[in-house]
Structure of Cytochrome ubiquinol oxidase subunit I:
Amino acid sequence: MMANAPLRVLPLRPISPAMPDFDALFLARLQFAFTVSFHFIFPALTIGLASYLAVLEGLWLRTGKQLYLDLFRYWVKIFAVNFGMGVVSGIVLSYQFGTNWAVFSDKAGPVIGPLMAYEVLTAFFLEAGFLGVMLFGMEKVGRKLHFAATLAVALGTLLSSFWILAANSWMHTPQGYEMAANGQFLPGPSWWTIIFNPSLPYRLTHTVIAAYLTTALVVGAVGAWHLLRGRATPQVRKMFSMAMWMAALVAPVQIFVGDQHGLNTLQHQPVKVMAMEGHYESHADGAPLYLFGIPNDREQRLDYAVGIPKLGSLILKHSLNGSMPGLDTVPDADQPPVAVVFWSFRIMVGLGLLMLALGLLSLWTRWRGTLYESRLLQRFALAMGPAGFVAVIAGWVTTEVGRQPFIIYGLLRTSDGVSAVGAPAVATSLLAFIGVYFAVFGVGIWYILRLMSDPPTAREPGAEAEDEPIRSAGTTPAAQAAHGGEGA
């Protein structure tokens, strides 16, 4: 610390949030973190893949090229499995609001509950309602109606992310509420104020672009896998080229959007930014940008810090000498666990820079005419396949852990929102979740990887051709006789 910093009486400091006790509160937080992190993997691909499928089908309808239909049929099977696992893993989260976070549900339910209901009514029903048509209706409803169903599914995934992030963003930047006498958060006169809270536009844009980048990296990795094995079919070349275009064009946009999101966070949640930057000390005449270091919450300093002088103020304040307050202005009890936020933020940013590098390398090889021959690019794209998932989870950790110790920022502490349950009960359910999740979803992920291991082919069979559903509703004896008795 600086020599003139105020003296801290360390023995009176509460236990560091980076070293929590394994009590019911910590276990409930760990359980929710595990289940939501596992769940986040699937929507991150579903959102982007739904839009990618709409683009592929639109290009097929416009150009008439069989190649786009082959890619659509190839990826729609992967989408179906991923969508199913996303739905199943997401259902668990809603139950945890009642089992582990009953007090939070009671206090914030009048605001959070309707937002979650809107997600089901406008988004999930739209996705689920048209998913069957998209999967099995290509030969039954006509091209235009099938394309409309694909667009509806893509729109549903975007609407779902909108409502979920509206609820989450309100917990970070709450507004438009009224406090009841019993401590409940009640909706104010305008729901628009609650929905379009200050952080929603930035959080929504950043998350949706992250989903698109995640999908591009997965598609690019699958294309690279087959190119490295000499399977340079027109379908493989096309999907690899489309993925590299996406990475090259969207990665710079994501970096800009992330910067704007950071400035919004600095305005509304400055303590989170202090933790992200490792600023334990205030800097009156320009703060450094710390690249690396070891956060030391107990001593309130960044050990072995490596930084660039004044660059932090230039990025966050757009001035080399901009004043930046530090965690020394924040009570110990109101500080998040800095080490987690500090490193998860750097993982996210580091992967974002690698995505940018991949996009630039693809542009270079495209310009040289070696996009499909460059082993360096293909190995790089293959290695970056999981990077989008890691980045979105790291970003979620940065966002949610940086909000601590509040569950509704500045208004309701996480410790005040937990249910009155014992640690053994939460630990038992946590262990059960870990076992079931790795068993069930591990098999699902293995099956997706197996589908990806085969390249898309000419006249790729659709989902309905491989696993045609049994027809039962609306059958008649005449219809059964016409089909040799099948359909019963």
Notes: The first strand starts at residue 177 and ends at 179. The first helix runs from residue 24 to 63.
